[in-house]
Amino acid sequence: EVQLVESGGGLVKPGGSLRLSCAVSGLTFNRAWMYWVRQAPGKGLEWVGRIRSNFDGGATDYGEPGKGRFTISRSDSEDMLYLQMSGLKTEDTAVYYCTTGQDWRALYFDFWGQGTLVTVSS
Amino acid sequence: EIVMTQSPPTLSVSPGERATLSCRASQSVSNNLAWYQRKPGRAPRLLIYGTSTRATDVPARFSGSGSATEFTLIISSLQSEDFAVYYCQQYINWPLTFGGGTKVEIK
Question: Which residues of A touch B (CB under 8 A)?
Answer without folding.
Answer: 37, 44-47, 61, 63-64, 97, 99, 101, 107-110, 112-115
